[in-house]
Amino acid sequence: MELLANRDPEEARKILDPVLERMMEAVHRYEGTVNQVMGDGIMALFGAPLAHEDHSVRACYAALRMQEQVSRYSSEMQDNVGIAIKIRVGLNSGEVVVRSIGNDLHMDYTAVGQTTHLAARMEQLANPGSILMAAATFDLSRGHVAAVRHGPTTVKGLSEPVDVYQLTAIEPTHTRFQASATRGLTRFVGRSTELAQMFAALERAKNGHGELVALVGEPGVGKSRLVWEFTHSQHARAFRVLETGSVSYGRASAWRPVIDLLKAYFQIREDEDAHTVRERIGATTRQPDRQLEAFLSPLLYLLDVPFDDAAWDKLEPSERRARILNACKHLLLREARVQPLLLVFEDLHWIDHETQVLLDTLVDSLLNARMLLLVNYRPEYQHAWGGKGSYTQIRVDPLDPNSAEKLLDALLGDNPALKSIRRLLLQRTGGNSFFLEESVRTLIETGVLHGAPGDYRVARPTDEIAVPATVQTMLAARIDRLAVSDKQLLQTASVIGKDVPFALLSEIAGMPADALRTALTDLQVADFIYEATAYPVLEYTFKHALTHEVAYRSLLQDQRRTLHARIVQAVERMYADRLSEQIERLAHHALRGEMWEKAVDYLHQAGSSAFSRSANREAAMHLEHAVSALSHLPQNQNNLAQAVDLRATLWSCLLPLGDQVRGLELARQAQLLATTLGDDRRTAWISCLMSGSLSNLGDVDEGLARGKDAAGLAESLEDPALAVTARFHIGIAYRFHGGYRKAFEFFQPDPKLAPEELMGPHRSEIRGDTRYRASAAHYYLYSLNNCSHCLTELG
Ligand SMILES: Nc1ncnc2c1ncn2[C@@H]1O[C@H](COP(=O)(O)OP(=O)(O)OP(=O)(O)O)[C@@H](O)[C@H]1O
Ligand SMILES: [Mg+2]
User: Fold this and answer.
1) 3-state class of 795 per DSSP?
2) Which of 54, 173, 186 most suits a substitution to test ligand 1, by most atoms within 8 Å of the C-beta?
3) How far is the CA of 290 from the centre of ligand 1 (A)?
4) Mean pLDDT throughout 120-126?
5) How far is CA 456 from CA 133, 402, 415, 756, in A?
6) Environment class of residue 421 by beta-carbon count within 10 Å: exposed (0-12), middle (13-18) or buried (19+)?
7) How are the residues of the chain apportioned to helix, strand and coil, as percentages rounded to the nearest 5?
8) Neighbour tally for 505: CB within 10 Å
9) Is 347 left (phi over 0), alpha (psi -120 to 50) or beta?
10) How far is the CA of 377 from the centre of ligand 2 (A)?
11) CA dihedral (31, 32, 35, 40) positive or negative
């Protein structure tokens, strides 16, 4: 708002304050947090500190409302004092770290990082009076808002251009399902049992025995889709269908779903004026088969249409409320007499109090009405209908494996090469349709899959799938809505892993046994975890990998680290007499708990044990972690020696995996370390490995040179095992050169050396490490093998 720069500060404040007030009102209306008020602007957060699954949609709505309110104020100012005011709004979505500053009475949040930086840049790039958003916000609010793409734009402070959109309007969609339906629905699969139950209830309702059918299931399983298939089916033809639903930011706005329902009933469009609306409602209520004139005022009042009724104006609020309820109820019941009525109320978990009361009243009148009341909600919603005769609950579970496969067929096609990705998708999503769709979308957007809907192929193999942003926000919001102690327990459990042994959880949760059991029951009821095994040990498991990951990520790094460390201590205590069974678990937690010394030790053990089982990939992973954990420890003799040895073991794991490049890199590092250590024997061993890598990578001359270095050292150290190994590598270098005669010479056993010497007690001074020695025995055998190979070549 540059125009204020030259004004007297007091006068500027007078103009500015009402602008800021309007901006803040818009933020609060959609439950955002104003976390900073700068001189002439504000910064607001949606979805933090409390997560909301539709945070970006809320931000868009708030931005549009801000522009609308400020432009209204600006016209007033234009008329009164002759100044026009325009604001710029910028939006971005992503992770922020939110810190609370101050005490409980006064909370101030600061959010820092790349995400806020880009939002600020969007604001600076916007033309006065407009709203710009980054692609992340657009992606998350797609289908809910209208926007114009500006295309890739260079932004100060970022190396790559970013995609920028100008937000222009709200789309008339309320729910995520409606928004995704505008993009096209995936072919419908499964659900025949659920639909059959619903059709049976519909039939009964048609015959005058109304019912309340509730579809209950976790977010994204397919409740809305089931409603859609149902209302669009042949069976529902005879019914008048009226649909409405609660929205996540609507709990504070009483009656909202009822108002939407009435608008649908009276077919009121947004652009119609009060007169037209009043006439239409009046005409309907006067119809002979309805006779609802007495209810006209309450209906008009609820719809915010001006009318003249002196008696109404005199009523107490409680009396008005009673009459509104009565009017709505009778309107619907009378309509059901004219033709059967299918009333849909979606997303009751966000219901406001007044709408709830209306539903409760309707339920009591259903038994003799030609009305089916179809509702859906997530498991956390509580109601008192359980004992009512007219109440039927249908649990909507994730898709069964067969249907999930069909959904994947529809999304991806049946290319056999997709088998492993499909397995991964099913594992991570547990058959939740929304998670499946979104994960597939992520794979396409990140270039893992290429092709067209129903016909994809793998462009880049992967064994992990990132949590889609849409799923992340949904799950984070669910977790945030849990009671504080339940949420903490879920987060603590997530640090243990996807599978959570009860005994371990109770060791680290720091909760009394009773409280722990209650919280676990809550988490089961809310569908976050379930009991996987009860015997021999009680173990819980996260419903899907995605929930686990989001719960884990909702912890700050410090908290995670502390919990991982606590798990290591607990496991060491609980399994003191059989730690070796727990090595992998200990290695994992010690690493993440940043207990570096323990981490190196456990990882090395885990790596060696995997290597001995020929689980080379797993071994390599442990050992890579060990190498990086070790880098956090001081460079003393002991650690340097271990740094060399770890790399040598890792090198051996990589050899069968064919990763020579990483092998050579490790060998080079090890060589430097061994030199720093001043340890000739290790230097010699590493020269052998280096020689192997170089020859394998085609640099045979260098390979030969390193082999000779090793042989020289072996001789001066008088170490037979080392000598055999060095000779083998020299032989290999010659062989790769085509010098079979020379090669044969080196592969031939040294006449001075008895093979038993390699296997027996070793003269090497590398303490406690039998690996080099054992490998020397292998090299002895490889050499013999190679001898015969050379002889064949030489004829
Ligand atoms: N049986 C099915 N066949 C094909 N697609 C499905 C099926 N069930 C759900 N889907 C798709 O999965 C997505 C999520 O489903 P839906 O929106 O119905 O979930 P929901 O249970 O209503 O979730 P929420 O609690 O968040 O409202 C939608 O895009 C929907 O079209
Ligand atoms: Mg839904």
Assistant:
1) coil
2) 186
3) 37
4) 92
5) 31, 20, 7, 58
6) buried
7) 60, 10, 30
8) 22
9) left
10) 8
11) negative
Cβ atoms 429, 436 nearer than 8 A: yes
For the domain bounded by 2-171, which CATH number is listed? 3.30.70.1230
Is residue 492 scored above 70 in pLDDT?
Answer: yes
Span between the terminal Cα atoms of the chain, in Å: 91
Atom of ligand 1 nearest to the CA of 227: 18
Instruction: Give the mean model confidence (pLDDT) for residues 729-756.
Output: 81
Pocket of ligand 1 (CB under 6 A): 176-177, 180, 185-186, 188-191, 217, 219-225, 347, 378, 407, 433-434, 437
What residue type is assigned to position 477 of the chain?
A: A
Q: Which two tokens stand for residue 484?
A: 């504080």
Tokens of residue 686, six digits? 């590493």
Closest residue CA from atom 26 of ligand 1: 219
At 655 the pLDDT is 87
- pLDDT mean over 397-402: 94
Report how far residue 70's alpha carbon sits from residue 15's, in angstroms, rounded to the nearest whole number: 11
H or E stretch covering 96? none
Query: What is each CA distance from 447 to 134, 454, 465, 469, in whole angstroms?
Result: 20, 16, 12, 16
How far does the centroid of ligand 1 lie from the alpha carbon of residue 537, in Å? 35
- Preceding amide of 172 cis, omega within 30: no
Same fold, 2-171 and 177-392: no
Atom from ligand 1 closest to the CA of residue 53: 26
* Distance (Å) from CA 186 to ligand 1 centroid: 9
Cα–ligand 1 centroid distance for 226 (angstroms): 8
- Pocket test of ligand 1: the residue of 182, 218, 223, 224 to mutate, having most ligand atoms within 8 Å of its CB, is 224
Whose CA is closest to atom 1 on ligand 1?
A: 189
The 10s digit of each residue's pLDDT in 187-240 is 999 999 999 999 999 999 999 999 999 999 999 999 999 999 999 999 999 999
The amino acid at residue 690 is M
Residue 192, classified by CB atoms within 10 Å of its CB into exposed (0-12), middle (13-18) or buried (19+), is exposed
Compute CA distances 782 → 117, 362, 706, 728, 763, whole Å.
60, 84, 19, 8, 22
* Ligand 1 atom index nearest CA of 396: 21
In angstroms and rounded to an integer, the radius of gyration of the C-alpha atoms of the chain is 35
What is the C-alpha separation between 489 and 511, in angstroms, rounded?
9
- Residue 393 carries which DSSP code? E
Question: Which residues, other chains included, contact 118 with Cβ-Cβ below 8 Å and sequence gap of 6+?
Answer: 92, 94, 134, 155, 158, 162
DSSP state of 536: S
Counting other chains too, the contacts that 252-258 makes at CB distance below 8 Å and 24 or more residues apart are 252/31, 252/352, 253/352, 254/352, 254/353, 254/354, 254/355, 255/302, 255/324, 255/352, 255/354, 255/355, 256/352, 256/355, 257/345, 257/351, 257/352, 257/355, 258/302, 258/328, 258/354, 258/355, 258/358
Lowest mean pLDDT among 172-186, 215-229, 504-518: 172-186
Task: Give the residue extent of every domain in the chain.
Answer: 2-171, 177-392, 401-466
Predicted confidence (pLDDT) at residue 51 exceeds the cutoff of 50 = yes
Tens of pLDDT, residue by residue over 521-566, are 999 988 889 988 888 889 999 988 889 999 999 898 899 999 999 9
Cα separation, 165 vs 153, whole angstroms: 10
Supply 710's token pair: 């090793």
Pocket test for ligand 1, best of 185, 405, 434 (most atoms within 8 A of CB): 434
What is the atom index within ligand 1 of the atom nearest the CA of 177? 17
- Residues 384, 373: Cα–Cα separation, whole Å: 16
CATH level 3 topology of 177-392: Rossmann fold (3.40.50)
Residue 623 CA, ligand 1 centroid: distance in Å: 43
